[in-house]
Automatic annotation (TrEMBL):
Residues 259-482 form the UvrC family homology region profile domain. Belongs to the UvrC family. This is UvrABC system protein C. The gene is uvrC. It comes from the Bacteria. Keywords: Cytoplasm, DNA damage, DNA excision, DNA repair, Excision nuclease, SOS response. One of its GO terms (cellular component) is excinuclease repair complex. SUPFAM superfamilies: C-terminal UvrC-binding domain of UvrB (SSF46600), GIY-YIG endonuclease (SSF82771), RuvA domain 2-like (SSF47781).
């Protein structure tokens, strides 16, 4: 059931009289219809009424109520269901006055393709559609890559792409440095290879001691059979494994545990999580939740745990630095979601207390670094205000750059900074079409027009300053594009490259001045301009390379009669890209489903004798 009250008719007393006492969630909206806060309640009537008792309202609540234009409520069957719904909606809408977790990335896993005769072990992110075994989640791609690197040194299981593996005719470099047993050219049989795969799985499952016991037994058997070279190999394997176990395994832990610590200061919070799976320390990850006010660590952890774990694998235990506000309810909801018991505790001893203290110290250090960075960026914004003569301190900056190769495949980039630094989620690229190749003026005009047409449609907020990487011509085109859209409250600044393109020697051009702006040499605001200009350039170059590479892949194969889109994609996948297709023999090409011998010959000749047909 959902109830909404429009702005013109919003009567607090009348609304509260009709409000139910059942559990549910409530959404507070401003006059624009934007959700500014989402909350959950065991008793909706009591909870919502509390906001209008002025003697008990906090400054944050007072500011929120001042913007309130309507309230929507949704009744649920239980408080636990309300908590689940609240967390999902907060992650979706990111309301201004909620504690919001910025965490939209899927977490990486290690995948072993156990269905194959010679399984591959590899990095995996996304849906688990392939048949095989998955291990994780890991906190970062770096943690996965480190584990894969360690595994390859101990158990030489292949990590190469299947397309690369199927087309080998001789062992690769990984075999030469003893990190692969070369199943691609039959230098190992399936039974011996399966032993390395099984050992890798034991390691990833946290059964390190069992694995070492088996290797010791094999070493002794080899020694008894006078096969001393093989015994020495097992000895070295055991030594490397012990070294890794000492570094990565947590003493006293043999289960799935996450250690979560929160530090907060000056309106900024840092949450640090250490991930332990099967007793193995998979690494740690930092989070900086969005706060609207100074909040207590227990309240922050309540919001963090609910938003973070309700779409991920939940461990059996969470060890926390501060007790969440509703730890019991939170544990109950997580257990129902995970289908196993979940405990949340802040009172631990011994080895666990040491780990919790270490996690909290890490959170505090990371928070200190974040605050130092924020202060540095804020100082640069102050300097920028002074150098450009802005009446108010800028909040949002945007910068455009153009990239192309002799006018071909032109890409424009737009990057966004706020007072905390780059806002990468707001970056955009524009493929420029319909302009004369190499016409940067027309490209800038098109990109700015497309970007700010979306602003007029309410898709994003306006910047205080728009930087254009270029001179007077580019600045004039940006101004014209904004004028066409009737946007006249954005300052436009051209960043013209200085002598010899040296950093720090740029000239700043304003639309209402004929001469470059006089700036203070070495001013920190100039560093901010260099930063955003360089970031726009990097983002444009990356986009241009991707577009050029895609076109290159398509154009060579598109010239071949009889090779349609599906077959082109199949070839690229089978041979691992255009380079693999180019290096393949006609017979290898013909082995792909749907590629006849005649077509394979034409493909081969396209790369080896392109002018011969």
């Amino acid at each position: 059931m959902s109830v909404a009250v429009p702005v013109a008719e919003f009567d607090v007393a009348a609304f509260l009289k009709t409000l139910t006492g059942r559990p549910g969630i409530y959404k507070m909206l401003n006059e624009k219809g934007e959700i500014i806060y989402i909350g959950k309640a065991k008793n909706l009537k009591n909870r919502v009424s509390s906001y209008f008792r002025t003697q008990s309202a906090s400054p944050k609540q007072q500011a929120m109520i001042a913007q309130l234009a309507s309230i929507e409520v949704m009744v649920t069957s239980s408080e636990g269901e309300a908590l689940l719904l609240e967390s999902q909606l907060v992650k979706r809408f990111m309301p201004r006055y909620n504690i919001c977790l910025r965490d939209d990335k899927s977490y990486p896993y290690i995948f072993i393709s156990t269905e194959q005769d010679f399984p591959r072990i590899t990095f995996h992110r996304g849906a688990k559609k392939k048949k095989g075994q998955y291990f994780g989640p890991y906190p970062s791609a770096g943690a996965v890559k480190e584990t894969l690197k360690l595994l390859q040194k101990i158990f030489p299981v292949r990590q190469c792409e299947d397309s690369y593996y199927r087309n080998r005719t001789r062992p690769c470099l990984q075999h030469q440095i003893k990190r692969c047993t070369a199943p691609c050219v039959d230098l190992i049989d399936t039974s011996n290879y399966a032993v390395d795969v099984e050992n890798s799985i034991l390691f990833l499952e946290g059964n390190g001691e069992l694995l070492i016991g088996r290797l010791i037994e094999k070493m002794e058997n080899a020694s008894a059979a006078l096969d001393f070279e093989k015994a020495a190999d097992f000895r070295d394997q055991i030594a490397r494994l012990r070294l890794i176990l000492e570094k990565h395994f947590v003493h006293g832990e043999r289960g799935d545990v996450d250690i979560v610590a929160c530090a907060t200061r000056a309106g900024v919070a840092c949450v640090q999580v250490f991930f332990i799976r099967k007793g193995q320390n998979l690494g740690n990850k930092l989070f900086f939740p969005k706060l609207s006010d100074q909040d207590e660590p227990g309240k922050i952890l309540q919001a963090f745990i609910a938003q973070y774990y309700l779409d991920k694998t939940v461990p059996y235990e969470l060890i926390v630095s501060h007790e969440p506000e509703e730890a019991g309810l939170l544990a109950e909801v997580l257990a129902a979601y995970a289908k196993h018991a979940v405990t949340i505790t802040s009172k631990v001893r011994g080895e666990r207390q040491k780990w919790l203290q270490m996690t909290l110290v890490n959170a505090e250090h990371s928070l200190q670094s974040k605050l130092a960075d924020r202060q540095g960026i804020y100082a640069r914004f102050l300097s920028l205000q002074e150098e450009l003569g802005c009446r108010e301190l800028p909040k949002r900056l945007e910068c455009f750059d153009i990239s192309h190769t002799q006018g071909d495949q032109t890409v424009a980039s737009c990057v966004v900074f706020d007072r905390e630094g780059p806002v990468k989620s707001a970056y955009r690229r524009f493929n420029i079409e319909g302009v004369t190749p190499g016409d940067d003026y027309a490209a800038i005009h098109q990109a700015v027009a497309r970007r700010y047409k979306r602003l007029k449609q309410g898709e994003h907020e306006a910047p205080d300053i728009l930087f254009i990487d270029g001179g007077k011509g580019q600045v004039a085109e940006a101004k014209k594009a904004l004028a066409d859209l009737e946007i006249n409250n954005v300052m436009i600044v051209g960043v013209s490259k200085g002598p010899d393109r040296k950093a720090g020697m740029e000239k700043l051009l304003l639309t209402d001045q004929s001469q470059p702006l006089d700036v203070t040499p070495g001013a920190s605001g100039l560093l901010l301009i260099q930063h955003i200009r360089d970031e726009a350039h990097r983002f444009a170059i990356t986009g241009h390379r991707q577009r050029r590479g895609k076109t290159k892949k398509q154009s060579v194969l598109e010239d071949i009669p009889g090779l349609g889109p599906k077959r082109r994609q199949l070839l690229l996948k089978q041979f691992g890209g255009l380079q693999g297709v180019a290096g393949a023999s006609a017979d290898a090409l013909a082995s792909v489903a749907g590629i006849s011998k005649d077509l394979a010959q034409r493909i081969y000749e396209q790369f080896h004798n392109p002018n011969g047909h």
